[in-house]
Structure formats: structure tokens, C-alpha cells
Amino acid sequence: MKKLALSASLALVLFNQAVAHDLSCPAPGTWVDGRSGKEMEARDVIRKMAGASAVLLGESHGIADIQLWQATTAAAVSAQAPVQYGYEMFPRSSQPSLNSWSAGELDFPKFLVASNWVTNWGFDSKAYEPILRLPKIQSAPAKGLNIDRTLVQRVNSEGWANIPEGEKKGLSDPAPAQNEYKAWLREVLDMKASMEKKPDPSKERKLDRFVEAQQVWDRAFAEGIKDALDQSPERLMIAFLGRGHVDFGYGAQHQLSDIGVNKVVSAVTLFGDDDCRLGHDAADRPVADFVYILPKTSAEIQGQDFERPRIGVFIEDAKDEGVGIIRVIENSPADEAGFKTGDIVVQAAGKAVKTAADLGQTIRSHTWGAWLPFLVKRDGLTL
Question: HSE-up of 326 (CA within 13 Å, CB side)?
Fold first, then answer.
């Protein structure tokens, strides 16, 4: 839920911060050039992708039609050139399970368990199944590009320079962020504070570390991609990353350039129909090299066959124990049940809750409509 909230912030900031150009919107299923907005033949887009070293396919997390677009695009590229796949969804610690998956040694349910899908990512696996099955059906290499989130959290709180070399997971120093990236992340931080409905007097002090944390994430993806290319230079890398790491080339692509990977192509989606808007930043960078037009309804129907229970809260791991409630949505089930911002959930359905992933898993596995008891700490009392 916390990840989803941040993803939504990034998507909104994209159009706040970008210079948007109205287009005569092409029909859904059409490719357009990211800089000019001109329509392109699909075969020309795929040919350009097949000639790259790395293709970055940006997503909004958990929207099934976007994941299906990623899968069909990747499959088309794989018909033109040998490929390998990289996933933001998996940290490096999941690599053994990815290897077994590519080798055909696991079925899908066992792969999800072995790779710690719920803890590492948490979005509905059915939305991601098309991109997850690609390496198995093609016997292609699959690489976990992410890192342990505790490192990113430490950078956010301590700063990259204050983390000992031996605890940096082998990552080199990120390339400095572009000014436009900093401005974009400032808006994300402002929006996050607004969503949490609480003032943050230390915002300016936090901004630099927030930027650093995002750069470390971007650097991890870039170095993971380069490592895969070094190991299998005959295969181009198709990486599935969140839009925040792809848009305008600020994230992974900027870090890839810093470590010598320059033949990079990026692509994202745009919801069309009656209001096509193509973004360029203040330096006139396009949002991506190529943009694929999806029906506007694609943003609405995700998960229609497997809608997950939602209780209406934004959460984060608490410092000492349990899961903190950082916002309660008005008139939601949580609001009606009496949850308040600042509550610490320590138990759900009789099970101990230690992390946000624990709480999410309990809610997802719950029979919706049945009584779901919580144990909550508030102002020193257990309720």
C-alpha cells in the first residue's frame, strides 16, 4: 500500500512537473515517438528496441493492462534478438529462485513462494504473471535487479556517505542527479507529506537524502543490468521498472550512461481516448523514447477479476514493532472501524504483525465480509 501510494504520487507529479503537449490522440494500440508525438509503425519501434543493449519498459505498479503491454512488447523484441529479463520486483537475494524458474524447475505457485513475492513486492501476482512467465517459456535468463529495502531506508535516514563500504551491497557511488530530477522528487516529497496530512518542518533536510535514496535505487538497477550484460553480452536486457525509474531518463538510464551502457531505449504507456498529453521536462527531455497508447479504461479495470480487499489505510513499518497507520481514508472500512493516524497495528486475525507485508498478506488472505479483529497500540494503550 505504501509503495502504491508513492507510485501514484510519481504519476501525478509527472504531469505537474512536465511541459505537456496536447496531441490528436491516436487510437489505442498505437505507438508514438516520445519526442515528436508522431505515430510510428510497431515494427519500427520493435526493430529499434532489438538494436539496443537495454530496453527499459516503465510501469505503473499493479495495473494489469500495463503489465500485459510490457509482456507483449518484450515478446515481440525477443522474436528479433536474444534477450534476458530484469525485474525491479525481485531483490538480488531472490536470484536462486529466478534461476530455478528460468530452468523450468518450479511451477508458478512454488516460484512465488520461493522468490518471496508477497514480502518483496506484494502486488497481485496475476497482474504480473505475463511478464513473470517470459523467462520460463523462453528458457531465458532472469535477473533480480532490486536491493534489500533496508539499505534504501538507511540512505534515507543516514545518508549514503555515512554507510560503511562493506554495507553498501557492492554498489558504487551514484552519478549526481540532474536538477530536473531533484525538482521532480521535491514534488513527490511534498505530495507524500500532503497525503499524510502532517507538516514536516525538516523537509528541506530530508530532501537531499530522499534524492540520494532514489539514486541508490537507480544505481542498483543500472549495475544489475550491466552485470547481466557482462555475463551474457549476446543477449539484450529487457528491464521491467517502475515509471519513477524510467521517465525522462532521470533514473536507471542516467546511471547506466555513467557506467558505460549507452544503447538504451525506453518506453512507457499513456492512457488515451479524449485527452492525450505527452510530457517533456524543463530541459525538453521526452518522457520516453516511445509511448504506447492504452484505452483510458485500462487504468480503471485492473484487477477486476481478482480485486483485493482494501481497508483504506496508508501504512509503514513502525520503528520498534508492528505497522504504523500514516493515513486513514475518510469513510473507508478502517475509518468506520475507528482506526486513527498514528495507530500501531501489532496483531491481525490473531497473527502477529511485524511488517507492512505481514499486514498486507493477512488482509489479502481474509474472507472479505467476515469479522477481522485487530490489536492496536494508541497513546500507550493496547486496544
Answer: 18
The grid coordinates listed for 325 are 497507520
Tell me how far apart the alpha carbons of residues 22 and 276 are, in angstroms, rounded to a whole number.
6
CA distances from 309 to 36, 68, 124, 341 (A): 42, 23, 11, 20
Q: Do both 109 and 47 map to the same domain?
A: yes
304 within a domain of the structure (yes/no): no
Q: What is the pLDDT of residues 112-151, one digit of tens each?
A: 999 999 888 888 899 999 999 999 999 999 999 999 888 9
User: What are the Cα distances from residue 88, in Å, to 7, 59, 239, 244, 364?
Assistant: 13, 10, 8, 12, 22
CA proximity to 364, closest of 306, 300, 301, 305: 306
Per-residue cell: 303: 484487477
Using an 8 Å Cβ cutoff, are 25 and 275 in contact? Answer: yes
Confidence band of 312 (pLDDT split at 50, 70, 90): confident
307 assigned to some structural domain: no
Condensed to tens digits (0 to 9), the pLDDT of residues 153-187 reads: 899 889 999 999 999 999 999 999 999 998 888 88
- Kindly give the residue spans of alpha helices, DSSP state H, lying in the chain: 2-17, 42-50, 64-78, 95-102, 108-114, 117-120, 125-138, 149-158, 179-195, 203-231, 252-258, 333-337, 356-364
Residue 360: give the domain boundaries. Answer: 313-382
Which of 272, 299, 326 terminates a domain? The answer is: 299
- Express each pLDDT in 41-81 by its tens digit: 999 999 999 999 999 999 988 889 999 999 999 999 999 99
DSSP code for 37: -
End residue of a domain, out of 243, 265, 299: 299
Q: CATH number, domain at 352?
A: 2.30.42.10
